[in-house]
């Protein structure tokens, strides 16, 4: 028995020593992971897609679009036709050339399926034309300035490979299943990494593409392993044993402190562009009164929230995160000032003693309760009574679907759909989003709607950003929301084993791009 | 005369054997028939409950920003736009053909998920079940044999600790102790990354490795089974030990054991030949439930060890309101309970000939 055990242990240890050399990058994620570009859109899916596929343009750390598969582009005078000129040397993992037909196929597929990042293009892209092998045109329904930024999410598929693996019949008519069943665990991309093995709910293994069209640094990982676990004890053990290089961002403060104590492990903290809002219903009494809302904004203890409840977070300044392109750093930042709060309350048409304000927090995020209770205590100081209610996420989504059922205040995290201030401004404050979970404010303001529509239709980037700034000023003036804080994403990582640009401060504002392994080096 | 009586005895024995066989067949037929009703009832119950829970499963699957038409398309595709009884009819007709629908989370046919995840949990449960049965009975027998001696006291304390401690606590402790502190045993998955996986024959990595002669994979798979298997086994093992001890203690005072002792039969022979078999009856009865319980309760252990098993899949399905997966998981668990209980009844009947299957006891 002892011999058998020793033999098994020997296999394990020797194997472990021989396994990876210096070449593997292992990271943990919360699953499920969808590697079909027309289906996946969450963090783990986005991080995988970035490594498996190429897009026409690539975001730099300021969120600006850089040339990638597209070498240049131009926009028609009416801002409706976007023409892209492609490289002629990009090859898919099977060796075939990437052409305009592949780009057209990828966009058509996205528009037909409508899942994943499809919402960025559905209703905006009217048609796609492959002019020749290296020229592709997108015809938009109406002018849309941030179109380039949305193209970070158009991952180009190998049309021939997908077509050869379509299952018929399927839900998409002649297109059968549009290759969805094939792309569950295989890739059809041209990216710097390719799928080696995909074990659902367990692990996604990718290997370096030796023929990638951009020469890869030999020190970039030979293999990527995205492991589907967020279990604290497991991650701590893996990190200590050198079996993990980057942890997921769902580790608790206590778990991160323990990880930080492991020799060689450091914590990378950066803003992922997610905001925490206290969304105030602007259409029901007493929160329909701007002075009442301002009184609450002045009475809120921001410092305690970012120091003790969400340590490391930044107090928000206006409706969009400050690292989001187009954010206005000059907008007014509310701060705790009880005198001002009482002054505002005195101006309100409502007597706080006659009203109770109902605050709903999301049951699945326990730390929100701490914020809710702190807020209740803060408001009590100026005589506002708060009733704190714990509500499951699905119920919150349902109650926010109608004005009649929307509570006075809901606490929610939200982030931009594409890396521009206009995305959050539109999804949070345009009337279109009023009956969704993204807006409890119910602003329904025609003037604001027109300003938002005008801004996102502006193609010139500087002009568009100036308009975003004016809108942010307008929103802060209305005080429809308590802009509480910008979330900080934290990962434990092996600083002694990898050089991770994100940890050095080169943070990409587009979700998933901080895990682009072609920029990460394995240290020997 | 004697020669003339032998055929009669043989005939009586043959007759008893036939009656026993008939009894077993009747029992099986009756239980299987009842099982169909149980499964049908279970399916109606779980189907209804899963569909009246708040929240739109399709919206959850496609995300809050998916266009409404995409949501409607998927709803239509999954027949969720039809009345609930029609949905059930669709589901039942599919299930009878082996088509359990599509998972909203993995986006694969649920039957494919089950084929992939069930063997992982089954392998873990079998491993844990073996540990539970072997060590539980052995510890119970030792404790019963040396009643009120120090070894009994040690086992008693161990049993109490085992019974009151949830398996996930053991799992976390083992990960930290054997993984983090001692760095002795693997803590995630079914195989190490550098091991060549055996081809999937049964889905049980140990069996597939053995069959294909991949002994490196076999050794590695066994090492991966140790921590999650022991974590899962400790609770039921402790329970088994207590029950076995009580049963053995009880039987030790019976007349037939005293009679055996008076004939000078050695203690070891009494234990293994006369005492253990009847004492195992309550242990085996509980063992069946414990085994099914291991499968049902494996969720947290699978989560901690990143074990790609069925229990973890089931919980994910429930959290994400993955309707078809939830129904399938509950049905498979129900089926497991039924099969295990039938097997337990058969084993108990074999252990104790006084028990006649199908309620014929005492005839």
Overview features:
heterodimer, A: D-Maltodextrin-Binding Protein, domain 2, Dipeptide-binding Protein, domain 1, Dipeptide-binding Protein, domain 3, 3 domains, 6-stranded mixed sheet, 15 helices, B: 363 residues, mainly alpha, 0% strand, globular, disordered N terminus
Task: Report the strand count of chain B.
Answer: 0
CATH superfamily of the largest domain in chain A, called what?
Dipeptide-binding Protein, Domain 3
- Unreliable parts of chain A: 11-22
Helical amount of chain A: 25-40%
Numbering strands along the chain, what is their spatial order in the largest sheet of chain A?
13-17-12-16-14-15
Quick rundown:
The complex is a heterodimer of chains A (524) and B (363). Chain A has 524 residues and is an alpha+beta fold. Chain A contains 15 helices and 20 strands.
Structure report:
The complex is a heterodimer of chains A (524) and B (363). Chain A is globular. Chain A is 30% helix and 20% strand. Chain A folds into three domains: 22-35 and 44-51 and 191-270 and 489-524, D-Maltodextrin-Binding Protein, domain 2; 54-183, Dipeptide-binding Protein, Domain 1 (Dipeptide-binding Protein, domain 1), CATH 3.90.76.10; 274-486, Roll (Dipeptide-binding Protein, domain 3), CATH 3.10.105.10. In chain A, strands 13-17-12-16-14-15 form a six-stranded mixed sheet. A four-stranded mixed sheet of chain A has the order 1-10-9-8, covered by helices on one side. Chain A is α+β, with helices and mostly antiparallel strands and 524 residues long. Chain B has one domain (18-53, 100-351): MetI-like (MetI-like fold, Orthogonal Bundle). Chain B has 14 helices and no strands. At the A-B interface, helix 1, helix 6 and helix 12 of A face helix 2, helix 3, helix 5, helix 7 and helix 9 of B.
């Amino acid at each position: 028995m002892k011999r058998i055990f020793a033999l098994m242990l020997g296999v394990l240890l020797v194997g472990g020593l021989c396994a990876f050399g210096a070449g593997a990058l292992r990271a943990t994620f919360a699953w499920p992971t969808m590697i079909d570009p027309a289906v996946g859109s969450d963090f783990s899916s986005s991080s995988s897609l970035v490594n498996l596929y190429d897009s026409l343009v690539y975001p730099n750390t300021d969120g600006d679009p850089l040339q990638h598969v597209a070498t240049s582009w131009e926009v028609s005078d009416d801002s409706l036709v976007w023409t892209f000129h492609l490289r002629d040397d990009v090859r898919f993992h099977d060796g075939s050339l990437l052409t305009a037909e592949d780009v057209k196929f990828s966009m058509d597929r996205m528009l037909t399926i409508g899942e994943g990042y499809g919402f960025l293009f559905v209703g905006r892209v009217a048609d796609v034309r492959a002019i020749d092998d290296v020229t592709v045109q997108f015809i938009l329904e109406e002018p849309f300035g941030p179109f380039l930024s949305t193209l970070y999410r158009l991952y180009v598929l190998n049309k021939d490979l997908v077509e050869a693996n379509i299952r018929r019949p399927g839900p998409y008519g002649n297109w059968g299943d549009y290759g969805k069943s094939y792309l569950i665990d295989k890739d059809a991309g041209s990216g710097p990494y390719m799928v080696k093995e995909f074990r659902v709910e367990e692990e996604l293994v990718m290997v370096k593409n030796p023929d990638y069209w951009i020469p890869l640094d030999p020190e970039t990982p030979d293999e990527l392993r995205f492991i589907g676990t967020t279990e604290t004890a497991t991650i701590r053990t893996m990190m200590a044993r050198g079996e993990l290089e980057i942890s997921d961002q769902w580790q608790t403060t206590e778990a991160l402190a323990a990880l930080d104590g492991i020799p060689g492990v450091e914590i990378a903290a950066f803003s992922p562009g997610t905001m925490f809002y206290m969304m105030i219903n602007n259409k029901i009494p007493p929160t329909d009164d701007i002075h009442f809302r301002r009184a609450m904004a002045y009475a809120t203890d921001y410092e305690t929230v970012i120091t003790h409840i969400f340590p490391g977070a930044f107090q928000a300044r206006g409706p969009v995160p400050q690292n989001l392109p187009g954010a206005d750093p000059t907008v007014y930042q509310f701060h705790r000032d009880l005198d001002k709060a009482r002054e505002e309350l005195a101006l309100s048409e409502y007597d706080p003693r006659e009203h109770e304000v109902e605050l709903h927090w999301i049951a699945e995020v326990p730390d929100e309760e701490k914020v809710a209770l702190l807020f209740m205590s803060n408001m009590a100081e100026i005589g506002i009574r708060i009733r704190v209610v714990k509500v499951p996420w699905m119920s919150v989504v349902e109650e926010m679907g109608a004005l009649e059922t929307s509570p006075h205040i809901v606490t929610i995290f939200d982030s931009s759909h594409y890396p521009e201030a206009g995305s959050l401004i539109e999804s949070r404050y345009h009337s279109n989003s009023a009956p969704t979970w993204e807006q409890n404010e119910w602003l329904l303001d025609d003037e604001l709607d027109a300003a938002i529509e005008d801004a996102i239709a502006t193609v010139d980037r500087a002009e568009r950003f100036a308009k975003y700034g004016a809108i942010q000023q307008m929103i802060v003036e209305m005080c429809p929301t308590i802009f509480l804080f910008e979330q900080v994403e934290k990962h434990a990582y092996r600083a002694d084993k990898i050089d991770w640009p994100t940890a050095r401060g080169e943070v990409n504002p587009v979700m998933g791009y901080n895990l682009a392994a072609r920029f990460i080096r394995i240290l020997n | 005369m004697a020669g003339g009586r032998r055929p009669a005895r043989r005939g009586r024995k043959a007759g008893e054997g036939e009656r026993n066989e008939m009894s077993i067949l009747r029992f099986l037929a009756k239980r299987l028939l009842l099982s169909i009703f149980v499964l049908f009832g279970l399916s109606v119950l779980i189907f209804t409950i899963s569909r009246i829970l708040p929240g739109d499963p399709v919206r959850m699957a496609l995300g809050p920003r998916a266009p409404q038409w995409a949501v409607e398309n998927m709803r239509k595709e999954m027949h969720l736009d039809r009345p609930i009884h029609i949905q059930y009819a669709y589901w039942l007709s599919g299930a009878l053909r082996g088509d359990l629908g599509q998972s909203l989370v993995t986006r694969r046919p649920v039957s494919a998920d089950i084929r992939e995840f069930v063997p992982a949990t089954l392998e873990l449960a079998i491993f844990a079940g073996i540990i539970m049965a072997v060590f539980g009975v052995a510890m119970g027998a030792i404790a019963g044999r040396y009643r009120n001696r120090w070894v009994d006291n040690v086992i008693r304390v161990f049993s109490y600790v085992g019974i009151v401690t949830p398996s996930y606590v053991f799992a976390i402790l083992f990960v930290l102790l054997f993984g983090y502190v001692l760095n002795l045993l693997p803590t995630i998955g079914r195989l190490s990354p550098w091991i060549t996986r055996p081809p999937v024959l049964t889905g049980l990595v140990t069996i597939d490795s053995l069959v294909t002669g991949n002994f490196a994979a076999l050794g590695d798979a066994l090492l991966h089974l140790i921590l999650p298997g022991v974590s899962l086994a400790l609770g039921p093992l402790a329970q088994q030990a207590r029950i076995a001890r009580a049963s053995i203690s009880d039987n030790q005072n019976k007349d037939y054991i005293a009679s055996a002792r008076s004939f000078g039969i050695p203690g070891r022979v009494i234990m293994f030949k006369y005492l253990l078999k009847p004492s195992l009856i309550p242990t085996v009865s509980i063992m069946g439930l414990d085994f099914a319980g291991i499968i049902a309760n494996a969720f947290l252990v699978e989560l901690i060890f990143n074990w790609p098993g069925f229990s973890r899949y089931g919980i994910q399905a429930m959290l994400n309101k993955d309707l078809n997966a939830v129904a399938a998981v509950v049905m498979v668990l129900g089926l497991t309970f039924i099969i295990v209980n039938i097997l337990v009844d058969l084993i108990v009947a074999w252990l104790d000939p006084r028990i006649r299957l199908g309620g014929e006891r005492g005839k």
